[in-house]
Amino acid sequence: MLKFLRGLPKVELHAHLNGSLNTDSIRELAEKVYGAQTADFSTLCEQFVKFEKGAKLDECFEKFGFVHKLTATKQGLEYATELVIRDFAKDHVIYVELRTTPKANEHMSRRAYLQTVLDAIKSARDLYEIRVKLLPSINRGEPIEVAEEIVALAIEFASTEPDIIVGIDFSGNPNQGKFKDFMPALSEAKKHDLKLALHCAEVDNPLEIREMIKFGMSRCGHGTYLTESGYEHLKEENIPIECCLTSNIKSGTVANIGVHHLKQLMEADAPKVLCTDDSGVFDTTLTDEFFLATETFGLTRSQCIALTMEAVEHAFATREEKLLMKMQIYSYTRRQPL
């Protein structure tokens, strides 16, 4: 099964750029941009993917500061984007939607950040033969003015790069900020036909979950604390839940893999896709996520193929791109022994 899953052309719909750098790629990035690294740096790399038992969600967000420093310059950000795309391609991912929050610092404006990522995507997607889309992210822990700027930039860049910028991601520490404060900015994005991928029900906040569901979304990130009525609503609207198994376990939002809500989603025949979230931070790959699902829930090859096809359907891709992806998947699976 593992060999089959490694070769299976896969579709990744929930991947944060900075969190998707694995430790080998972080070392490669650091060496190229900043020179030879010390033993202390190696220790930091090891701590980056180390999770103590009983880790909390807030602790996971603290880990990102380490990578953000490495991508604080144009050269660092550009190379990091290439490495992440390369690593997904190595895992036989044929389509990936990357998310990242444009950041402003002494080296770059948010506009320059977004332009750097876009340029890197255009170069890397051809080099590694992989389709790549970009969802600029609103970090709910930042001021509303920043969210408004990011939406304005996304709308502007989407007009010139419609094949790359296809939506907006709403994410960040779910214990910070209030969703309702960001609704005007998200409404503006929706008005300009940008898809919305909202981190929803990542923590137990019934009021906000109801606000998000009422507001509407194209895809639901995590959905860990959705109720059966929530599942039913998303099913009726054909809104998939982006399931990130390893992420949920290591961040402590799900007690153990056996009780992960993927099982309930499958039983309810609700829309769902398997994703990595932050493959670097959580030391996983999309192949690993599929294999974990087969080992835990007994998924068959046919079910893994069906999940992949489901991801194609829910991708923010064109009809033509979806058709080509389906052909790639079909071409691979028909060559595999029963």
TrEMBL record:
Residues 9-330 form the Adenosine deaminase domain. One of its GO terms (molecular function) is metal ion binding. Keywords: Hydrolase, Metal-binding, Nucleotide metabolism, Zinc. Gene3D superfamilies: Metal-dependent hydrolases. It catalyses: N(6)-methyl-AMP + H2O + H(+) = IMP + methylamine. Its cofactor is Zn(2+). Belongs to the metallo-dependent hydrolases superfamily. Adenosine and AMP deaminases family. This is Adenosine deaminase domain-containing protein. It comes from Drosophila virilis (Fruit fly).
